[in-house]
Amino acid sequence: MQNKRKIPLLFVILGLFLQLFTAIPAQAADDFTIKAEAAFAIDADSGKIFYDQNGSTPLAIASVTKMITTYLVLDAIKQQRTTWDAQVPISDYAAENSTNPELSNVPLSKDQTYSVKDLYDAAIIESGNAAAIALAEFLAGSEHAFVDQMRQLVASWGITDAILVNASGLNNYFLGDRRYPDTGEEDENMMSARSVAIVARHLIKDHPEYLETSKVAKTQFAPGTDSAVEMENSNSMLPGLANAKEGVDGLKTGTTEKAGACFAGTMERDGRRVITVVLNASNEVRDKNARFVETSNLMDYCFNNWQLKTVDLANQPMTGETELPVVDGKQEEVQLQNDGVVQVWARNDMDLNQLTTETQMNDTLLNDGKLIAPVRKGEKLGVTTVKLNQDDLGYVDPNEAPSASVVTSSSVEKANIFLLIWRKILDFFN
């Protein structure tokens, strides 16, 4: 009798446990936080925002700056303004910086030259500050002129919150009288986590070869020369390093007293790539791996909670104009419809049936709001964008929100002369 009474109770307990267990994913999506001053995550391909925690506040970014610096190096290579083998002289400024024991560097001698490729590798892998300075001076004539290029570059991407004062990401304190004109003695490069994600996205879309260097865990600086020295990537999430995570192949760490521990990371899994940004990770004093732990959590959150879903816009009602008048057509109006399906990023707890569409007609294709016969079936006249009602995050570039073309649902032939005359007679009497 005791066994028979225990079995139902066991089932009740098991049922309660399963309810709690299955509720965890949705709960985690709502309550998920990153232990950092700011965190941001996007889909690298579409720019869809997956996570935003204080992502619009400008903060110090330290050596994350070097993503901008190396972007300009890659631009110079692409535009054939320099080559990987070009030899770079070392100024007193860069040489002195390279031997400062407080800073991350490979030692550089002003009595030697180094290839652009060696300095580029050192800036990314070892986070070499002097290497970044030497590249800036070589490409622009001075670090100040290079900073002007950095500012122009991010402005061209629509970034308005950046404060850029040097090529390395160091606090101005370490630059002394070489700091950029009219900047403070302890100024640093600053940018929001959102803007860092935009920089990272441009970097790997415009120059995917960056990942070939950023994924290198260990290598040698200037191999085969008297300056050869071992380098270990400051990104310990790479294979073989302390916080290795499969699929991680970049991007850039950054650390200063003002910025704290920062990391712009990227990871690819099953053909999907995410970009994550963690600025000033908490508990860094107690846990030197805090930025990587939080980045790993953020990457898992993105892959586990966001999926690409298909929405058939042909079955969605049109907003705004549903038909257009046709001048001189056999039919005087033509119906409009959304064309095809769109791919929409949705968090697991979002309802795909709760969505909003917005139609924007291309007025340049119309004649005072009208079409002129003949009209082809499927003629593209505008776009309909889609937004899930439960998604307030959007895209880093609103123009990349999922959309489908607005097209004519049928063709309209031009009316013959007799029909046109008859219509004019009717118009006259009406």
What does this structure look like?
With 430 residues, the chain is α+β, with helices and mostly antiparallel strands. Helix content is 31%, strand content 25%. It folds into 2 domains: 270 residues, DD-peptidase/beta-lactamase superfamily (Beta-lactamase, 3-Layer(aba) Sandwich), CATH 3.40.710; 105 residues, D-Ala-D-Ala carboxypeptidase, C-terminal domain (Peptidoglycan synthesis regulatory factor (PBP3), Domain 2). It has 10 helices and 19 strands. The chain has a 6-stranded mixed sheet, with no helix packed on it. It has a 5-stranded antiparallel sheet with strand order 2-1-11-10-9, sandwiched between helices. Strand 1 and strand 2 form a beta hairpin. The protein is elongated.
